[in-house]
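Re: [ENG-882] Designed sequences occasionally contain unexpected residues at chain ends

Forwarding the minimal case from QA. Structure tokens:
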């Protein structure tokens, strides 16, 4: 169900929803479930799951530092699907401009469709930690407006690269 439908259905009653952060890469999802379990008594109609953009890490290679780009908290869509399945609660993955190409965004949106995830939160996202200003990746969106247009186009069956 869409978030707007949950709000209409509430008819003025207070709704509680939660926003969670994916665990750090390599951690077990059970820790996340252990944190969500006590919150289920509030019957949240939906749960937001944040997305982290990429960041640079420095790996020591025999005394030399190697600068690598990585995501420390991947798995937003997978976590959304897992929460939806385990708790029967709608989920809202955050979709960012920062750190994603338009093609990667399209793949994420298609995955959401396949998994029955009907909501997304479109955000430009923050600048990387070492950047003063936001810079999109090559082939990515500069502003959330372009991301929202891509989402709307996809909802109408318009893909980036039409193949007939």
């Amino acid at each position: 169900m869409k978030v707007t439908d949950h709000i209409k259905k509430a008819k003025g009653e207070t709704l509680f929803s939660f926003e969670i952060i994916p665990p750090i890469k390599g951690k077990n999802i059970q820790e996340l479930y252990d944190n969500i379990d006590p919150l289920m008594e509030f019957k949240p109609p939906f749960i937001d799951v944040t997305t982290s953009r990429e960041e640079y890490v420095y790996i020591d290679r025999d005394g030399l530092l190697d600068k690598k780009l990585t995501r420390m908290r991947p798995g937003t869509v997978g976590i959304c699907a897992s929460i939806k399945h385990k708790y029967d609660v709608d989920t809202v993955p955050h979709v960012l401009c920062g750190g994603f190409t338009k093609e990667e965004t399209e793949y994420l949106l298609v995955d959401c469709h396949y998994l029955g995830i009907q909501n997304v939160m479109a955000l430009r996202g923050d600048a990387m930690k070492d950047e003063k200003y936001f810079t999109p990746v090559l082939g990515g969106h500069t502003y959330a407006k372009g991301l929202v247009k891509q989402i709307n186009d996809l909802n109408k069956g318009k893909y980036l690269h039409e193949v007939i």
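QA comment: On inspection the terminal residues look reasonable. Residues 10 and 45 are 10 Å apart (CA to CA). Proposing we downgrade this to a documentation issue.
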